[in-house]
């Protein structure tokens, strides 16, 4: 920042009202750091591209498709886990944090991936899974044997005796995420161990400084391999409450939400989720990132945090006045507020408001509409709303996150009980598994309308294809004159060139149950207006009631698949008619 700009900023901080001040500060800054306006793209490696025909995606497959990511405007790709794993939870059960899963490739393949990504100026972010390892990890095996240095690497406990029967019972009533007790008896060590996820995912004990140190080693190891940062998995469950003065763990209270005693929601999760220690741990990891940058230079290495938690908790991950935290705690509001049948303009408004009104000053927003744990965005919001949602995510301020296939409007696969592999579903039964399964959003990525959707040359893919692959695929959508992919690319391009989208302020409203509108504005630049109809019938709106300062007509920059309006035409803001699923991005010049 130039001296004069700094001076202006300091004066501004003293004199201006907060909102106006932010505008000037934003206009004054030369550019934002790379991650603040980034287009993040989540790759689920097992399902992205198979290079050797075994039906399973792999690193060489990803490397062969990096040009595609570049072409659709991605800044950084984050990869779900690629580390050695028995695949009980498809890589979220890591048996060696320092090596690559053989079905996915080798360390050299990973280096080739990074090299190619660097050539294309794409950043690669890895999934960091801090809460647990696999039970096949050598750390756990040593801990079972109480080997020196590993005795307390995991959360072990003798359990309780039932007062009446005298039988041994788990230390507490805590439930795992994938149904049933969070405690598992280990015969060899003669103690229970804690697992917030599957039995094969024992929780690491973060009250042991050796564990904290070991996991920082994991971060430094991959930073040395050239990654641009980490997306940290399941951060709210890292720490649990400590045992009481008698060495016993307290029970969670009943939630009253369900009668299903194996479902984690049967109990509250106050003792095992959202502890303050988790926030402190993220601050320590940020220090690791910043130390690395200080020593090795280069661009900012980022921390993205997975947390489904109330805003007052989530926002603390950003850090406070004295300590830096995560660059971006993921914002899942557009998933949680629009769950099931509540897809409406007012729930979008609530989702946006609940994030922006809680965001600490000077922090960067982000918007996520899907991942490998949720049903696909097009299935949740409706295929017709694919563009409206993709466009919204790119019009809102800050970074955007795309889960692979969202740019195509890919929908859920239909997976029978026989084909089901997700532990969240396999731990239930054939009558109820569809409530729990995460397989439908993990089906192979759709490259073409040909065999295995171009994902694999093998006879069989690890999960069957989704039914929509003949139409929702890269090849078809690239050649169609209008497609979800083309709308997506047009939006990425607009965001890259628009100062208003990168730096501007925001105003938004639900004009009806179906129509959501956003205005982005910045002194000295054209304003940008998004208007989307996510309902099932035509709507006519008057944008002058939303913002009296808008001119009588606006220029159409991007229209979607449902629209028949021509780009660069001028549209009157009164009596503006929007077909079902139609979404437009307009500007003021
Ligand atoms: C910021 O966080 C650190 C680490 O948790 C804590 O020690 C400090 O008191 C906090 N400062 C403020 C101003 O909240
Ligand atoms: C949405 O539906 C799923 C599956 O039927 C259910 O488990 C979940 O509780 C519902 N969520 C909301 C917010 O209603
Ligand atoms: C979205 C996401 O990454 N979810 C993961 C959270 O952590 C558990 C356990 O590691 C995984 O099973 C989920 O897939
Ligand atoms: Ca393969
Ligand atoms: Ca834990």
Automatic annotation (TrEMBL):
Its EC number is 3.2.1.20. Keywords: Glycoprotein, Glycosidase, Hydrolase, Signal. One of its GO terms (molecular function) is alpha-1,4-glucosidase activity. GO terms for biological process: carbohydrate metabolic process. InterPro entries: GH, GH13_cat_dom, Glyco_hydro_b, O16G_dom_2. Residues 1-20 form the signal peptide. The keyword Hydrolase applies. It catalyses: Hydrolysis of terminal, non-reducing (1->4)-linked alpha-D-glucose residues with release of alpha-D-glucose. Residues 42-442 form the Glycosyl hydrolase family 13 catalytic domain. It is an enzyme of class 3 (hydrolase). SUPFAM superfamilies: (Trans)glycosidases. Belongs to the glycosyl hydrolase 13 family. This is alpha-glucosidase.
